[in-house]
Amino acid sequence: MAIDSHIKSGFLNSQENGPLVLEAQGKTTFNPFEWAKENKPLLDNYLVKYGGILLRNFNIYSLSEFNRLVQSLSPDLLDYVYRSTPRTKLGGKIYTATEYPADRIIPLHNENAYSRSWPNKIFFFSVIVASTGGKTPIADSRNVYKKIDSHIKDKFEEHGVMYTRNYTKRIDLSWQEVFQTEEKEEVEKYCKENDIEFEWKAGTPELTTRQTCQATLLHPVSGEPVWFNQAHLFHISSLDEESRLSLIRELGEENIPRNASYGNGEPFENEVLDHIREAYTQEKIKFEWHKGDIMILDNILMAHGREPYTGERKVAVAMA
């Protein structure tokens, strides 16, 4: 496959079923901004077909250049509201990737699949490559869906997934950071507009919210079914044993910062969550970041995560 003489194309895996890698040739003459503008319809088609595109050697070195390229492809970028992870705003609507301890794994997930509002596209820009590790593994949510047993899918689709969040001072994210406001009235407005149950409390936690969301989706363009939730990530079993037991001892299981269940309130079976995690593991695709790489994912079709690392690592993110 050849888009034009400036681009060499290939795939991240040997099966050639995505994501697509587009590597620029002749760096002194290649203009990534003009190229992106001219090829936007083609890139959109490739994104739906392959789920992701990795742009390499595109002469992008700074956050401002990354922002300019992203804006040319998706001018309507999103703010990161109703957060589940800590991030730092780098300017405009560019953020750091999730700021989580370097020795921890971030499981595969679709961005904001724990809510009823999510970005259709997510852009990653490799600013600083870690000394070791730090890969951003990805997995095709269409294939994850196919690997999950039908009786599990049926139950998830019947009930959906309920996400419970308890906001306690100095533990996990504060409600002020999650909702990006200091005003309780703004929190209540957001919750009412998004069908989130909320309860303010005098003690610990300060606030409890519950929202029941989708378990699967049909892609709006291709119509393909995808697995689209964060049950395996929000559930308390996603924590290591020491962290899990410490939180339960300190807060009680009903007050831990986040948890997930079936939409009817029934607890998830551990073997079901193990099965879901195994489906993600089987579909995981890994690659080594190069400085300046830009990865574009269709956020409905492709899940992403992060592996542990050493040294300094910086990945910028934009959502559209």
What does this structure look like?
- The structure is a single chain.
- The chain is an alpha+beta fold and 320 residues long.
- The chain contains nine helices and 19 strands.
- Strands 1-2-3-16-7-19-5-4 form an eight-stranded mixed sheet.
- The longest helix has 19 residues, at 32-50.
- The radius of gyration is 20 Å and the shape is globular.
- The two termini are 27 Å apart.
- 34% of the residues are buried.
- The model has no long low-confidence stretch (mean pLDDT 94).
Main sheet: strands, sense, barrel: 8 strands, mixed
Number of strands: 19
Pattern of helices and strands: EEHEHEEEEEEHHEHHEEEEHHEHEEEE
What is the rounded distance between the termini? 27 Å
Strand order across the largest sheet: 1-2-3-16-7-19-5-4
Mean model confidence by pLDDT: 94
Residue stretches low in confidence (pLDDT < 50, at least 5 long) are: none
Classification by helices and strands: alpha+beta
Helix content: 25-40%
Given the structure, what is the number of helices? 9
Q: What is the 3D form?
A: globular
- Kindly estimate the percentage of residues that lie in beta strands according to DSSP: 25-35%
The radius of gyration over CA amounts to 20 Å
What's the layout of helices and strands?
Layout lengths: L6 E5 L8 E5 L7 H19 L1 E5 L6 H11 L15 E3 L2 E3 L9 E4 L11 E8 L3 E2 L4 E3 H7 L2 H10 L1 E7 L7 H5 L4 H10 L3 E4 L6 E7 L2 E3 L6 E3 L3 H4 L6 H11 L6 E5 L7 H14 L10 E5 L3 E5 L2 E2 L3 E6 L1
Parallel strand pairs: 2-3
Antiparallel strand pairs: 1-2, 3-16, 4-5, 5-19, 6-17, 7-16, 7-19, 8-18, 9-17, 10-12, 10-15, 11-12, 13-14
Helix pairs in contact: 1-2, 3-9
